[in-house]
Amino acid sequence: MNIQNAKYILPNLFTLGSVFLGLQAIAWSFDAQFVAAGIAILGAAILDGMDGRVARLTRTQSDFGTQLDSLADAISFGVAPAFLVYEYALTDFHIGQANFGLLVIALFAICGVLRLARFNVMSARSKKAASHHFVGMPIPGAAALAVLSVLSAERTHVAFLRSERFYIVLMLAAAALMVSTVRYPSFKKVRWSRRHILFAVLGASLLTLGVKLVTLFPLLLLCGAAYVTYGLLDTLLRRIHPRDARDDVDDPSDVVE
Q: If you classify domain 3-191 with CATH, what class do you get?
């Protein structure tokens, strides 16, 4: 195997590492090691974010890698968080003889798979459109909401975050958002303007302060809730004022190269 061919394997190793962590998270969920399972899924998200960047850096993007990434996401961010939440809070959610807890997590995983399929189709049709925003909540984001809720509950022991009803609403809402037409910003190809840099520095400062004041997982959960709210409000405003909606284009004079 020559070096040129080996370069194509490198990004796929990150993707397969994400699959491994997703499967490990499922095993830990069944063993009631919920914190370890949640951290494994977050680790899978980090690897998932790196594989595409490695592929672009090494110029080894391929259709095979795109399809492999979607299959990995279905496991790590669809099935793994579904079983984590099921084992954590929904095993006793029965109505009569029907296991509605299993139905809830099944809807989450199914909507995640549908979201991935739609994303692949849209990306193939228009890579430019897919690079600036997502239509529907990305499946890693939905998984992060579920995982951070469990980790926050374990860290803070807040009864609300440990309740069955909370996870029923959370998983069904996340499932609906994944297959919705709500727009969410993509950070894969951000054009860094002076305004973006200022917000990034301010956000990093607030994050550092927040970690000092509260635990990390609840703070990240609040950030995830803010991301969800932003998408809902942005979509609502675009429908109320469609003429004011603009494409994701910055002022060229304000862009920092």
A: mainly alpha
